[in-house]
Design brief:
The protein has 9 helices and 5 strands; from the N terminus they run E-E-E-H-E-E-H-H-H-H-H-H-H-H. By secondary structure, the protein is of the alpha+beta class. The protein starts with a strand and ends with a helix.
Length: 206
Amino acid sequence: MIAQLRGLLAQVEADRCVIDVNGVGYLVQASSRTLAALPQPPELACVLVETVVREDAILLYGFADASERSWFRLLTTVQGVGAKVALAILSVLPPPDLMAAIAAGDRTMLTRAGGVGARLAQRIVTELRDKCDGMPTGLPAGVAVSAATVAVPTPRSIAANAVLALSGLGFRRAEAQPVVERVIDRCEGNADLDVVIRDALKELAR
């Protein structure tokens, strides 16, 4: 099993990247949080990896840190939460916020992720509430996580991740940035990363 990849970052797309290790390009699916933490191609990059072997494919999922990978593993134990949905959740809720949302039973925060409806959000809260103790958050030792620490992604962070995704799709930052900002302005404080990327793509394609 592949547990870590270190090599040249060859390509970054909206939900995946390609890492060149000694001439072999590995396709790695990842959250927008992990993709935003990567350097610019073709710089050296390192990601932790969860390898999933299926009958028809070997899939690699990459993570910026061990806490995100641990939460990915836990999320995918919930019925109805596959790898794609788990990455969507981790894209909008980093580990400290995810832990706090589950502890508080905040289904609304969970439904911000693509593919998570109210029923699935309730299942996640119900099944994982008692399993959160001891889960890593990536926060410094001694920093407690509570419901009060839940943080909504800011327009600035959403804009940065959206521009990164669009750059990975071949758009220049100079042309993507103003479009993303206009889309976020239209959302009037209710911006969602998936929606921003989708609407920005529509405008850039005109």
